[in-house]
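Lab notebook: predicted structure, single chain.

Context: the supervisor wants predicted structures on file for every construct in the current expression panel, including those that have not yet been purified. This is the next one on the list. No modifications to the sequence; it matches the entry in the shared construct table.
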Amino acid sequence: MERRITGIGVLAGLVAGIVAFVYARIFIEPQVALAVDYEGVRSHAESLVTGEHEHGHEIFSRGVQENLGTGIGTLVFAVVMGALFAVAFIVVWAFLGRRSPSTDPRFVAVGLAACAFVAVSGVPFFVYPPNPPAVGEEATLGARSGSYLTLTLVSIGLMVAAAVLAFWLSERIGGLWAVVAGAIAYLFGVTVTATLLPDFAEIPGPVMDGDRIVGPGFPGQVVADFRIYAVADQVLLWTVLTVVFVALLHRVMRREARQRGPSLVEAGI
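Prediction complete. Output recorded below exactly as produced.
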C-alpha cells in the first residue's frame, strides 16, 4: 500500500511538473528574456563609464536554458515534491487512520498539501520574493541562497511542530482552537526567524556617470510581473499535484477496501 501511495505521489508530481513547465514557458520566460535584454543594456552602459568591455560567453544558449533547462528543473522539483508529499501523507495517515478510521483520507491529503505549500513555497517566497536574472549582487549570492534555504528548512520544521502541537491540544481544547493555536505558533516562529535572517534589497538602480544617467535602472514592472507569475506557478503546481494525488488516492484506497471487505466501502473509504 505504501509503495502504491508513493507511486501516485511521484506520478502526481510529474503531471504537476509538466503543467507548471508549460505555464512557466508561456508566462515566466518572457520576463526572463526582458531581464536578459536589460543585462546587455546595462553592460553596455557600464562599459561607457569604465571603458572596460566584458565579453561573456554562455555555456548554454537561451533556447537550451528556457526549454531543456527550465523543463528538467521544473520536472525534477515537482517529482521530488510529489514523492516527499506522499511519504508525509503515509506518516500522517498512519497516525490519523488508527485514531479515527472514519476520517476521509482525501481531506487529510488536501490539508497536508495546504500546509506543505505554506511551509515550502508560501512563506519563503513572501520573505525572499523570487527575482529575475540581473537582480542581485553576485557577491551576496551565497548569503541569499543560504538564507532562503535556512528559512525553508526552519519553516518545514515549525510546520511539523505546529501540527504536533495541534494534535496534542485537540483533545484538550477542541479541534478548531487547537488548529488556531498551532497556526499562531507557526506564524510566530517564522516571523522571528525571518527577523533574524538578513534582508536583501538589490534591484539595480540606474548607471551613473557623475550626475548623468547613462543607463536605466532595472524595470520595476518586470520584477513585479516575474514575482506574480512565479508565485502563480507554485500555486498551480501544488494545486495540480493535490488534485491528481487525491483522485488517484481515492481509487487506490477503494480498491484496497474492496479487497479487505465490503464494510469498508460502505463506510465511505
